[in-house]
């Protein structure tokens, strides 16, 4: 089914000129590796602190609500914004909405927009080959190989000594002044993503403990959860799940990741139709991100929403109905 404002054909997305035999990356600095380490360890420490502090300080609806709301807003900032809008251009929106969605995605602390997009486009260009930045495959055979591959795809790839070239993979976004501004001020948005839940909790509870717990639950613990759900798309969804479509790689649909990842876990669907705004292509495949995009379209906030035509879906299906 397509909407009246939906482009019914799956297109190839942003044109990227690249020699398929050429290595798609360049060296990453030691500073970048340190920043990756901070962004990974601090949310983990925050989650541990949150669990420890539950006993003496308690846990109320305030912190649960902050965790839930911030998880949804920043998670959708990644799925609707970083992924479907910026990387694959599966729909269009206004400059103010581009800014807002970009800021929400930045608050997830997964990296500046331009770097995230370049990395993800490199992944699609070389999915599950030697140049894929985070493929879980080709890391050995047997149980040890699976474990090594899972770790690399989930988190280990961030310490790899290479990064994608923004000028090669995201030249279109690098020319966009709004995207470029949000990307350059990435650390500011991460800081605000930590500050806002802390201040809200402090104002509601009128206490310094509220400030601390708001920071921990709505900030650090929330980042930890968003990170690992996102990284599970790289790892889990290239190892475990179903492959209903011919995508020429090992991408898979995983129900758990589909629900927790706002529809991103229907990963084989996505690799088969990368510029589709809709990843859950069957009625029971819950795709919260697509529902948000459709709601934006109904409100006039999104246009040219791309969804593959039914005949294209049928043509690529490996498992015939």
In short:
The protein is mainly alpha-helical.
SSE order and pairing:
Blueprint: E1 6-7, E2 25-27, H1 30-57, H2 61-87, E3 92-93, H3 95-106, H4 113-125, H5 142-154, E4 162-164, H6 166-169, H7 171-174, H8 177-184, H9 186-205, H10 208-235, H11 255-260, H12 267-272, H13 288-298, E5 302-303, E6 305-306, H14 310-316
Parallel strand pairs: 1-6
Antiparallel strand pairs: 2-4, 3-5
Helix pairs in contact: 1-10, 2-3, 2-4, 2-9, 2-10, 3-8, 5-10, 9-10
- The amount of helix comes to 55-70%
Q: Round the mean pLDDT to the nearest integer and report it.
A: 86
Shape descriptor: globular
Strand fraction equals: under 5%
Q: Using only CA atoms, what is the Rg?
A: 20 Å
**Helix count, per DSSP?**
14
In N-to-C order, the SSE pattern is EEHHEHHHEHHHHHHHHEEH
| N- and C-termini, Cα separation | 17 Å
Q: Which structural class best describes the helix and strand composition?
A: mainly alpha
Could you name the ranges where pLDDT drops below 50 across 5 or more consecutive residues?
A: 1-25
Spatial sequence of strands, sheet with the most strands: 1-6
Major sheet: 2 strands, parallel
């Amino acid at each position: 089914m397509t909407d009246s404002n939906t482009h019914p054909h799956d297109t190839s997305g942003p044109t990227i000129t690249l020699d398929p035999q050429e290595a798609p990356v360049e060296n990453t600095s030691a500073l970048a590796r340190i920043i990756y380490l901070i962004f990974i360890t601090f949310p983990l420490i925050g989650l541990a602190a949150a669990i420890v502090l539950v006993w003496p300080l308690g846990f109320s609806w305030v912190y649960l609500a902050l965790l839930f709301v911030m998880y949804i807003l920043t998670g959708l900032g990644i799925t609707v914004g970083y992924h479907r809008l910026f990387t694959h251009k599966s729909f269009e929106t206004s400059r103010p909405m581009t800014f807002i969605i970009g800021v929400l995605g930045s608050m997830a602390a997964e990296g500046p927009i331009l770097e995230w997009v370049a990395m993800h486009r490199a992944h699609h260009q070389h999915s599950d080959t030697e140049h894929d930045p985070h493929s879980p495959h080709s890391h050995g055979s047997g149980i040890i190989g699976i474990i090594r591959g899972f770790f690399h795809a989930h988190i280990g790839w961030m310490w790899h000594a290479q990064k994608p070239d923004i000028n090669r993979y995201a030249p279109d976004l690098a020319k966009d002044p709004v995207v470029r501004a949000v990307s350059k001020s990435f650390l500011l948005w991460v800081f605000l993503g930590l500050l806002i839940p802390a201040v809200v909790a402090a104002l509601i509870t009128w206490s310094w403990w509220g400030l601390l717990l708001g920071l921990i639950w709505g900030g650090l613990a929330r980042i930890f959860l968003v990170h690992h759900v996102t990284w599970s798309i790289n790892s889990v969804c290239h190892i475990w799940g179903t492959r209903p479509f011919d995508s020429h790689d090992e991408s898979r649909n995983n129900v758990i990741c589909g629900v927790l990842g706002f529809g991103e876990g229907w990963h084989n669907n996505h690799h088969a139709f990368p510029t589709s705004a809709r990843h859950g292509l069957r009625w029971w495949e819950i795709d919260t991100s697509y529902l948000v995009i459709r709601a934006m379209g109904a409100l006039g906030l999104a246009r040219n929403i791309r969804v593959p035509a039914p005949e294209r879906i049928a043509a690529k299906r490996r498992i015939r109905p």
